[in-house]
Design goal:
Length: 159
């Protein structure tokens, strides 16, 4: 089954996040370690090194929903009392990204681990001559993800 990229949802703290319009790609990169033994010819061997997981960016129209801001404030909350600007207890969350087929059936899900907000944009550039939707975004750092293999391929309801 080939899926389109238009139906998705994100869940954290057991709730779906309102109004998401865009999620960046899930991407990981493994460093290549090149080495050569003394007796080898002049070519090198390669081994996997450290794996890095790219941050995930979430975008949505500006709403009254406070989920982005409340999570970002756990990493840094301006105006808090001295020593309480950061919530080390719960600034990290595991999130679930769900991907749906054209019929609205859950087709694929990924669990993303130990996420935290490294960038928060509350309001975009404002332009009185523009007719664009106001978009806010957060950038989420993470320490890895895996596919939820308990989600099986849905059957076509029209068959």
């Amino acid at each position: 089954m080939i899926l389109t990229k238009i139906k998705f949802r994100i869940k954290w703290d057991g709730k779906y996040v309102a109004g998401l319009s865009k999620i960046s790609a899930l991407r990981r990169t493994t460093e290549v370690i090149r080495y050569r033994e003394g007796g080898d010819p002049s070519s090198s061997r390669k081994s996997p090194g450290r794996t890095e997981y790219d941050p995930i960016t979430l975008q949505r129209g500006v709403t009254h929903d406070l989920e982005f801001e409340q999570w970002a404030n756990k990493v840094w909350n301006y105006g808090s009392a001295l020593g309480s600007e950061v919530s080390l207890k719960d600034f990290r969350k595991d999130i679930i990204i769900e991907f749906y087929n054209e019929a609205g059936q859950l087709a694929i899900a990924y669990k993303v681990y130990r996420c935290w907000v490294s960038e928060y944009e509350a309001l975009p550039d404002l332009d009185a001559n523009s007719n664009a939707v106001a978009i806010q975004h957060i950038k989420i750092e993470n320490e890895g993800w895996e596919r939820d293999e308990s989600i099986i391929e849905p059957t076509d309801p029209s068959l």
